[in-house]
Amino acid sequence: MAQEFRQNEVQCITQGGLHRLAYTEWGDPANRRVLVCVHGLSRCGRDFDSLARAMAGDYRVVCPDVPGRGLSGWLKNPMEYQVPTYVADMVTLLARLDADSVHWVGTSMGGMIGMALASLAETPVQKLVLNDVGPIITAVSLARIGEYIGKAPTFPDFAAAIQYIRAVSAPFGQHSDAEWSVLTEHVTRRQPDGSYRIHYDPAIAVPFNATPPGKDIELWSYYDAIRCPTLVIRGALSDLLKRETAQEIGGSGPRATEVEIPDVGHAPTLMHEDQIAIVRDFLLAG
To answer: Which residue has the higher pLDDT, 90 or 151?
Structure first.
């Protein structure tokens, strides 16, 4: 049971209308201990397959595809591709799961969603892992991401798609050819003519590109309101979560514990056993 996954979906609503939120679920569906894992800006829930397999004996692990990505529906109004929409969707998801409390792992954007949800009064988030994200999103990283986000390139074959993902995701650090194949498989789709395309709504870039250039995004109001135990994982080469920010957050809000992953930028994929062990040890402690 723990090694099998199930693909499900729940219907959510915004002012623009209804949309599907797809999620992959691992472990015993009757387990009251729920772990939610949420991906980065242009990725999808299947990024967490390795972590989910490792945690499925202890948790019901749920990995949603944020709207506009993966198997989830696309939003009619592009300006709704923002954190408040995603938080509302996650509350709907937790209601579907009948989960009164959860542990949360969020990579980049998924961590921003987690911070926003954990900052609320009566939050269901009881433990929080922020994977290479914190209360300051640097302008440098936003400029780098802006070079490719929203583009919808096509590739003549899967090998070319892998080459592209390896290029834009080089900060992920060293991975085997097989791992790069997995990291490409779920964020691309094969077309009838045999070509491949990036599988997300290009309009996710609309609100992203509306951010004033050259300015950091500050989320201290979220972070300082968090009260649950929090772990911050930082890629040692990250351009999104600066080392000084990672050190500063240990003295405010939830006074997070910080762990740094060597030879990795933005963001650790949590696919490798040493990274999985960091998450597992924190979540299962106590």
So the answer is: 90
- 185-214 average pLDDT score: 94
Strand (E) positions, 132-187?
136-137, 154-155
Whether the model clears a pTM of 0.85, i.e. scores above it, the answer is: yes
Average pLDDT of every residue of the chain: 96
The per-residue pLDDT for range 159-183, each reduced to its tens digit, is: 999 999 999 999 999 999 999 999 9
How deeply is 34 buried, as exposed, middle or buried, from its count of CB atoms within 10 A (0-12, 13-18, 19+)?
A: buried
CA distances from 101 to 123, 131, 228 (A): 8, 20, 12
Cα–Cα dist 268/236, whole Å: 10
The C-alpha R_g of the chain, in whole angstroms, comes to 18
Contact by Cβ (8 Å): 43, 200? no
φ/ψ (deg, to 5) at 275: -75, -40
What distance in Å separates the CA atoms of residue 270 and residue 266, rounded to the nearest whole number? Answer: 12
Taking residue 215's Cβ as centre, other Cβ atoms within 10 Å add up to 11
Residue 152: its pLDDT value, please? 85
Six token digits for residue 258: 């910080």
pLDDT band at residue 3 using 50, 70 and 90 as cut-offs? low
Count H helices, E strands: the chain?
A: 10, 13
Convert 46-82 to b/e letters by CB count within 10 Å (16 or more is b). Answer: bbbbbbbbbbbebbbbbbbbbbbbbbbbbbeebebbb
